[in-house]
Amino acid sequence: GIDVKAGQLLATLRNTDLEVALTDILGRKASSEEQLVSTQRALLEDNKISADERTRMSGRVAQLRREIESLEEQRKLFLTKKKYLEVRSPIDGVIVTWQVRDRLLLRPVEKGQVLLAVADKTGPWELEVHMPDDRLGHVNRAAALAHQDGRELNVDYVLATDPGTRHSGSVKEIHEQAEVRGEAGNTVMVRITIDPSNHEREELGAGATVTARIACGKRSLGFVWFHDVLAFIQSQILFRLW
Questions:
Q1: DSSP conformation class of 7
Q2: Phi/psi zone of residue 195: left (φ > 0), alpha (ψ -120 to 50 degrees), beta?
Q3: Angle between helices 16-45 and 51-83 (to 10 degrees)
Q4: Which helix (H) or strand (E) holds 155?
Q5: Tens digit of each residue's pLDDT (9 = 90 or more) over 174-226
Q6: Cα separation of 158 and 97, whole Å?
Q7: 159 within 8 A of 210, measured Cβ to Cβ
Q8: What is the DSSP string of 105-135?
Q9: DSSP class of residue 150?
Q10: Which residue spans within 29-115 are E strands per DSSP?
Q11: Which residue has the higher pLDDT, 138 or 35?
C-alpha cells in the first residue's frame, strides 16, 4: 500500500553472470591502462631504445589504446544491461502487491515474471473473477438482456478479509476463451468494475480473494438448488444416450 511516483526505483535485480563479466572487463581495462602508462613512460624516458624497439613499442601503445577503447565500449554496454535490472514504477500510484519483501528478497525470478503491481487509484478499478465455464451460458444470457434493456449487469461481492460486508459492481467484460486454472478447472475471466472509494487501501491488492455473485435474474428455488445436478445429468448421461 505504499504510494510511488512514476520512475521511482522499486527493486533492483541481481545477475551474477553480468556482475562477473563486468568485473572481468574492469580488471582487463585497468591492466591495459597500466601497461599503456608504463610503455609511454619508457618511450619518453629511455633514450637508449633502438629505432626498431621504439617502433615496436609505439605499435604496442596503439594496440593498448584500441584495447582500452573496446573494453570501455563493453563496459558501457554491460552498465546499460545492469540498468535494465532496475524495476521502476511506470506510473504514479500505489503498490498493491502483498508482502513484496517476502516474495522477492533473495528469490530467483524468471524473464517475463510479474514482480510488482502498481495501480492508479485515481482511475477505474476492476475485479478479475474466474468463473466456472459451466456458468457461462447463464451469464451470457443475462448480459444480453441487460444490454437490450440498456442497463448494467450487476454483481455483488464480498472480500475474504471482510466477508460480512457486501459490495456491488457491474460486469464490464466477459472473456470468450476459457482457461484451466488448477483445481478450479476450466474458468472464464469476468472483469467487474468497482468503486475503490468503498474500500480501505489495505483491502485491495493483486491476488486479493473475493467471492462474487452475478445477478442473472430470478429462477425457481429448485433450479437454484439443483441446477448443477441437472447440468451433470444433461452433459454426462443424456448426452451419451443421445
A1: T
A2: beta
A3: 160
A4: strand 154-159
A5: 887 778 776 667 888 888 988 877 776 556 665 567 888 888 877 776 766 66
A6: 19
A7: yes
A8: TT----TT-----EE-TTS-EEEEEEEEGGG
A9: T
A10: 86-88, 93-95
A11: 35
Q: Judge residue 90's burial from the number of C-beta atoms within 10 Å of its C-beta, 0-12 exposed, 13-18 middle, 19 or more buried.
A: exposed
Q: Distance between CA 208 and CA 125 in Å, rounded?
A: 13
154 and 194 Cβ atoms separated by less than 8 Å: no
| Topology given in CATH for the domain delimited by 124-241 | Elongation Factor Tu (Ef-tu); domain 3 (2.40.30)
Q: What cell was used for 141?
A: 444470457
d(CA 52, CA 72): 30
Query: Phi/psi at 74 (nearest 5 deg)?
Result: -65, -40
Residue 26's alpha-carbon distances to 31, 62, 65, 161, in angstroms, are 9, 20, 15, 52
What is residue 51's DSSP assignment?
H
Cell of 105: 528478497
Q: Comparing C-alpha atoms, which of 216, 210, 135 is closest to residue 166?
A: 210
Cβ neighbour number for residue 130 with a 10 Å cutoff:
18
CA distances from 138 to 131, 158, 242 (A): 11, 21, 23
Phi (first) and psi of residue 196, to 5 degrees? -65, -20
- Ramachandran angles phi, psi of 114, nearest 5°: -80, 120
pLDDT at 133 over 60: yes
**Per-residue pLDDT reduced to its tens digit, 29-73:** 999 999 999 988 888 887 778 888 888 888 999 999 999 999 999
In the chain, what is the straight-line distance between the N-terminal and C-terminal CA atoms, in Å? 56
Residue 185, sorted as left (phi over 0), alpha (psi -120 to 50) or beta, turns out to be left
Pairing mode, strands 125-132 and 186-194: antiparallel
